[in-house]
Amino acid sequence: MSHNDPPPSRRDDQDDRRISMLPTLRVSTKLGQILRIGASDGLDTSNPAHHVVELGETSTKPPRRNVPFFLSFNDLTYSVVTRREMNFTTSFSRETAAEKKLSNSKILLNGICGEAKDGEILAVLGASGSGKSTLIDALANRIRRESLKGTLTLNGEPLESRLLKAISAYVMQDDILYPMLTVEETLIFSAKFRLPRSLSGSKKRARVEALIDQLGLRNAAKTVIGDEVHRGISGGERRRVSIGIDIIHDPIILFLDEPTSGLDSTSAFMVVKVLQRIAQSGSIVIMSVHQPSYRILGLVDRVLFLSKGHTVYNGSPLNLPLFFSDFGHPIPENENRTEFALDLIRELEGSPRGTKSLVEFNKSWQTTKNSRNRSNSKRLSLKNAIRASISRGKLVSGTTSGSVAIFANPCWIEMMVLAERNITNSKRMPELFVVRFGAVIVTGFILATVFWKLDNTPRGVQERLSVLAFAMSTTFYTCAESLPVFLQERSVSFNKLASCPNSTRACSGLNEKAKEATTLERQMAQEAMEKEKKKQLAKDMTIFSPT
């Protein structure tokens, strides 16, 4: 610590004075106003107002106190309506409306409870179809609230939908990126969309550069993303770019749907290591993991095991041996705790009673544990916590606890960014541009030679009408070439519409449709997987049945 730096206690007092100087506004506070308040109080605003923790950070300065955030969810229950197969019996059976509703519904989440704190990583584990992705979607407000029961609170206060989307980010399982943009360009376009206009271009650029270092992408910053045709960055780097796009505004809560799926052990460990650094900077990180390795488990602070929509364990991974020992199934020495737990859960699911005994034991075990570890520690209110978080450098898209800004930028700026991104992406594919331009030139040449030197007779007038009809039909034929581009843009748009709260003004009305499409696609995939399992089981029974 230098001689000019104040001691930690004085620095904390200065931070508290800055918090008290922040105005209590009834309208959305812009980020520029917050930065000007900090500058007037001696806060250095030459660097971007973000606390960035780099992978190789070895600073000897004491870390800043994180603003305490506590996310709690209780009794989350979610069910969907399934399609019934029509047959003669069901067509003429007399069932009440309630019976039909119960017979047509499938419970995906059943009384899920848990908590997550700032500076920690909560990992949701379970087999395929256990409800991991559904729980992440429920917490991130990506499913319809009418179908979801239960409470979701932050610092003990109900979390509204608009506020949640403004202070959180969601990273999907699939890396949906523009293949012909570089890593740096992808993050720059994300910064132009998500960061408010009051933040200067130099500060946005500095934020992108700091984020590239934080994600460990400096060596790949000038490399294109790539796809099946064009070679680009690796799978682990693509996943980190996807994370960087959604944390460009430094959210308080970060949701991730299986960020390590499809990656090797080293790449998966690097991704979770980045998430640990993000959590240590003052964020709540909640992710779903299929089967983490021993090294990844060491980076996780809390785990939540699910089995067919029920909670079978919720707590620290260090308490797993004690939990299963009390349950009567001690974990052997030198055994991976998560693998043992998942194998035991899978074995119980195949038994006649299922995991009911484990679910009931977890409830009693959690009740005993919570009664022993109950604390009455005081926490900041949600309003003061968000204000304090912004004053300490967390960029929350210009959000205060009073109200939430709907859009970070006006419509014309978003249109300019979209046009710039489209032009940049098209310039990287010259062969496609040449083909389209050549088709227009050839079509024009054919029309000019066929209808050359038309006279002014009635026949010439009729032929001129034919020229117009031919030209219009040719225009519609060339539009079919844009269908592949539309499919690519559709996936990117649905992803960003569902996860980005304050951009894409022109298409903001599609947010609910994007949620419904995501949930419907996941439901259809689960139904198809279950049907395939039933067919395989019937086939195996036919093979091994006695003749």
Description:
By secondary structure, this protein is of the alpha/beta class. It has a domain at 411-505. The chain is built from 20 helices and ten strands. The strands form two sheets. Strands 6-7-8-3-9-10 form a six-stranded mixed beta sheet, with helices on both faces. A four-stranded antiparallel beta sheet has the order 2-1-4-5. A hairpin with a 2-residue loop joins β4 and β5. α1 (8-21) crosses α15 (382-391). Mean pLDDT is 74; it is low at 1-63, 398-404 and 502-518.
| Largest sheet properties | 6 strands, mixed
Helix content: 40-55%
Globally, the shape reads: elongated
Q: Could you give the order of strands across the largest sheet?
A: 6-7-8-3-9-10
How far is the first residue's CA from the last residue's CA? Answer: 83 Å
User: How many beta-strand runs?
Assistant: 10
Overall radius of gyration: 28 Å
Task: Give the SSE layout.
Elements: H1 8-21, H2 31-40, E1 70-81, H3 88-92, H4 97-104, E2 105-117, E3 121-125, H5 132-139, E4 148-154, E5 157-158, H6 161-167, E6 168-171, H7 183-194, H8 201-215, H9 235-246, E7 253-257, H10 265-280, E8 284-289, H11 294-299, E9 302-307, E10 310-315, H12 320-327, H13 337-349, H14 356-372, H15 382-391, H16 411-427, H17 430-450, H18 458-479, H19 483-499, H20 511-544
Parallel strand pairs: 3-8, 3-9, 6-7, 7-8
Antiparallel strand pairs: 1-2, 1-4, 4-5, 9-10
